Structure formats: structure tokens, C-alpha cells
Amino acid sequence: MSDLTDLGIAQIRDGFQAGDFTAREVAEAFNANVATAKSLNAFIVETPEHALAAADAADQEREAGAVRPLSGVPLGIKDLFCTEGVQTTAASHILEGFVPTYESTVTERLFVAGAGMLGKLNMDQFAMGSSNETSHFGNVISPWRRNDGGNAPLAPGGSSGGSSAAVSARLAPGATGTDTGGSIRQPAAFTGISGIKPTYGRCSRWGVVSFASSLDQAGAMARDVRDCTIMLEAMAGFDPKDATSLDLPVPEWEAGLSSDLRGKTIGIPKEYRVDNMPREIDALWERGIQLVKDAGANVIEVSLPHTKYALPTYYIIAPAEASSNLARYDGVRYGLRDLPDGANLQDMYAATRADGFGAEVKRRILIGTYVLSAGFYDAYFTKAQKVRALIARDFALAFEKCDLLLTPTAPSSAFALGEKSDDPLAMYLNDVFTVPSSLAGLPAMSVPGGLDQAGLPLGLQVIGRPLDEQGVLNACLAIEERAGFTARPGEWW
Ligand code: GLN
To answer: Which of 46, 139, 140, 384 has a Cα at 20 to 30 A from 63?
Structure first.
């Protein structure tokens, strides 16, 4: 075996079970890659000892003839997931030094399935952002570079930018992500990997630092569709500790994988042809349409008339929920406490929150408290909730005519770090294709579709009916098999 870090999750699992290598060899190989890629800033905390301990347990179990579904597979964990005994910060200063005494349900499930943890991955602070630039621990740098002489460091996408960078740079075969308005799919698209956000309620939110509770959903990021499927199967499932968790069995998605789309109708939402869409994105979309047709699907145009309201609706609802969720960081219970001399309780709250939250987080708290304030509640928050229902209804009506929807994942390839950071609206526009399905709670996945002229990856998004992760995975598999995407970043780091 030349380099174990070239293997994906399925290959590691199968090779480990076949006795081709030990789990310790795999963990050591990924730990070594993590150690040499510090310039990417993908990890906030590295936990090589955790990966090795899980690997040693897996090796012993294999000796005893008992392996688990993810035995031998080390993973990166987004720093939004609480991990027992390991600092969890949501990339914020206010949580610096917070070491949970409990494990999130999703990470618990992954570890019970045999996976190890390579470390906690950098991200946008409290998952607010599309470029990973809002992290208190510095931005992640995408492993990708333009091939046209433009040498500016690129954004790995966000908020799961540490996850996307780590997977595409071969620092981890897979990573957890969370997606509130696109934070799994957009970073996956920017870095040439796959990422799935399941139906809202499939993965427990228990122990995941809350951003916008009615939207937050955990999911899997990995090199290909099968690897995402394997991870998601281990992550998903009912959890009585999360009141919004779906009490449904987890289907055997991997066993159900099929790239035959005969009998499926795929809708192309005409409102997603937004103004000023780069020609390359249009061309990618056309290519995607051809690929699903080649796989046997029938393709039709559909209409999602309220699409244009999705971004403003999201940027009211998400900050509103965030402002409420983030009220808990008061300097008393978690992480940071700033107690100026002679300060009273109010001063302590103010000093801690002023110092602990970054600019984007403060912006969201301000917007959120404004739209929830007595004078503006009905004008903004109630109105946004109504529009959200209309957006969800658009999808329900479209799914009477088709089984799945196909769109680009993002309106551009990766942009340069700093390019949009002074202009929040330009940053928010990057979420135009991912936010509507989040508002509707639908499963959606990004899969690499090709490269742009600068050699940067572009992603295609498949959106499905509630609970139809299988349909989404299968359409993405069909695209993956036909797109033949094999590009990977050159190892400059
Ligand atoms: N980019 C979006 C935002 O900033 C989505 C973030 C997410 O999905 N966590 O809110």
C-alpha cells in the first residue's frame, strides 16, 4: 500500500477488514498528514491520541474476530460538536477553554461505530459564514490554488471550511459538518468533495452548539458519495434527547446505492437561473442535466416561485434564532469570563460578550434581537415565518411533478480570502442555492461536477423530498460516476 491517506472511508473499512493493513497504520498515516499541514489551519485542536486509541481498539477487535462498521476509520470532527474531555469552541473566543463533560450524540454514534477522532476542525464562528473567515482561530486556507497565475489564497467555503479543507487535502478521509443554510454543501463544492445534509431531524442536534435550531442539521463530508453514505448511516438515528429528532429507523442507504436513474424525474428549477450567474456555472448545470439524462432520468423544468425571498427570509430567521440561542453565553456558565475591576453583573455580561463574540456573530445578534423586538416582530419575524411556509410549499408542489431537483451548489467557484469579507451582503449571496432547501428541511447534497477555467472545483446540488436521502445519494452517485471527477489539489502546504 503506497499511501494509506489516498484511501477513502469505504476502502479503509474494506481493506482493514480484509487484513491489508492495521488500523494503527491508518491512524498514524493521517496523523502525520495533519501534523505536516499546519499552514492550512484546518484544525483547532489535534487529537492524534484519540485516533490511535480507537485504532488500537479496532486492531484488537479484529484479532478477536469482531469489527464494527467504522473500525479503522479516523475522522475529523467540526468544532461545533461537543466532545467529552476535548475543548469545543465553535471557533469562538467566548468558548475558549470550554471542555465538555459530555459527548454529542452524533460523535458518540461515530465512536460507537468504531471511528477515531483526528481532531477538532476549524470553522466559521458559531457556523456563521461562508468562507471560514469569521473563526477566532484564523481562517482556514483552501488546499486548492488557481492555475491561471492568481495566487491569492482561496476560501475553503464555510462554515465547515476546516472539514472541507481537511478532506480535500487528505488530512482525513471524512469529516462531520453541520449545515444551517449551506455549510456542508458550499464548502464541499469549493473543495471538490461530496457533502450531504440529511432531512431536518435525521441527525440529533444534542450536543451540537446551536446556531439556528430550526435549521441546524449535521451531515457527512467525504471524498465520494459512498463514503458520505457510510458516515451518514452511522451518524443518523432517533435520539430522545433532541425533541426535533425523527423517530424513524435509519435506512440501509449504502445497500440501497444505485446509479440507475431510470424511472426518476428530475426537476430543474427555473428561478435558480439567477442574474449575473457566471457562464461556467450555467455550463456546469447543463452538463449535470446531461449526466442525469445519460443515467436514465427524465428531466423537466419546474418552478419554485418564492425562491427570491429565500435569502432575506433566512437572514431574518437564522439571526433571530441565533440571538436567542447565544444568550446563554453570559460569562457564568461556559468558557470566557471578563470581570473588570469593580464590575457588577451587568458589566460582566457586557464585557464578556463584547470580548468573546466576533464581528459577524455580533451582527447576527443585533439583527436577530431587532427582528424579534416588540415593534418589529410582526413586520419581520412573523412575515419571514410565513414566507418560509411558502418556500416549503413551493418544494412540495414541485415534488408532485418530479422526484428530485438538480441545481448548482454555489453561484461561483472558491473566491479569494478577503474578497467578500468587507461586504456581508455579497457573502450572504453565496448561499442563494443552498438556503431554500434548508428552510424547507429537505435532504440535499453537493457532488463535484467539474472544474472551472482556473482549475477550481464546481459542485452540483441534488435536493430530495423529505426523508428521501436514498434518492439524493443515488442521483449524486450517477453524477459522480459519469462526471469522472478525479482532480485533487497539488500538495504545496
Ligand atoms: N453561510 C450561511 C450563514 O452564514 C450558512 C451557514 C451554515 O449553514 N451554518 O449563515
So the answer is: 46
